Amino acid sequence: MSRKVVLVTGVFPPGIGGMQNYYYNLSKHTKHHMTVLAPDYPGSDSFDKGQPFRIIRGPFMRGERADVTSWGRLLRYVQRMHRNEDPDITVYGYILIGFIGLLLRVFSGRRYVISTHGMDMLMFRKYFGLNQIIKLILRRADGVLTNSEYTKRLVEQYGVDPSRIGLVNPGVEAIFNREVKNAELLRQHGLEGKYVLLTVGRLVTRKGHDRVIESMPAIMQRIPNAVYVIVGDGPERGRLEQLAKKIGVSEAVRFVGSVDGSERLNDYYNLADQFIMVCRELEEGDVEGFGIVYLEAASVGVPVIGGKSGGASEAVLDGETGLLVAPESHAEITAAIVRLAGDTVLRDRLVQEGYTRAKTQFQHENLAEAFDQYIGWLCGRPARGKKRAEGPAIGRLRS
Hints:
- The chain is an alpha/beta fold.
- The protein has helices spanning 18-29, 44-48, 71-85, 98-108, 128-140, 149-156, 183-188, 209-222, 237-246, 262-269, 292-299, 312-315, 330-342, 344-361, 364-380, 391-394; strands at residues 4-8, 33-39, 54-58, 89-92, 112-115, 143-146, 165-167, 195-200, 226-231, 253-257, 274-277, 304-307, 323-325.
- The strands form 2 sheets. It has a 7-stranded parallel beta sheet, with helices on both faces. Strands 10-9-8-11-12-13 form a 6-stranded parallel beta sheet, with helices on both faces.
- α8 packs across α13.
- Mean pLDDT is 92; it is low at 386-399.
């Protein structure tokens, strides 16, 4: 039975990133009737045209920032959507905006789901008052959607009934496939005859670009033609460029910047001899909740190395579909890269297992089916609160 679902999210394409793709592909592939409420972005109008689901844009959480001053506007948008759409359930794509779901649950009996990604389950724990609000939002939700077993365990630590927690991993776009190396890109980045190590992701500390750069002198002693190609941009770029210069490997590190479109990104994956992202958990709770880039690389037939932290151990099965290393250990990083470069039998086995897993278990259609079943199950349960008219309870707000 098809249900009416509203997704309220602070990130969505044409914004770039894993969460953006996660919500877009759930919306695109679900068999439920989905309406998305998302912030305005440059280029939103052209992106929204022709999508198989409805997208409503609003002036809130601009720049993908949790700007609480815009939450009044967001609340008004959500209330209007509830009046117009009368959804069976609303999914909130960020834990703090789930407070709106809590309010509408208490005053209107509206069902809601919180979608979590790992880092959001850690970053507020040191703030007692805020952490108590997070606990209340999660416990009063009809369901909590998680992206990995790791995130699911973090949610359970808040005392959420495990039976109400759903798990839907991120998926891999079908466009990621083995292709002939793009000769233009090889020339552009000076990669002819090079052994290419690749990382794809935002340039933020947890991704571990710095640890790979720091390992490059030892790597180049064993693999003299090694080059580290970094695709992505972010606040750490300047520091990483200075780090490469400081340790004398700037000629062996290529900063590509952001790449537009999955087709072009697939070209970069196909340049790689190995994919590496040694993500680590930071003290402030910044952690990789899953890591879909590992599976994108696996879909292209590239061997992968990940960091032993967060949900990366679910994206990369150590010794089966790739290798995991201690993300702070230069010795382990170097040893894993050298091992994959020299052990053809191991590399081929990991590539084959990783490719098969990515192409079967992590396709969007299969994952959307799990989402559909979860939403259908939640909507089929008895309501946890009596539904009432929204206006009188918290004030019918005008946008």
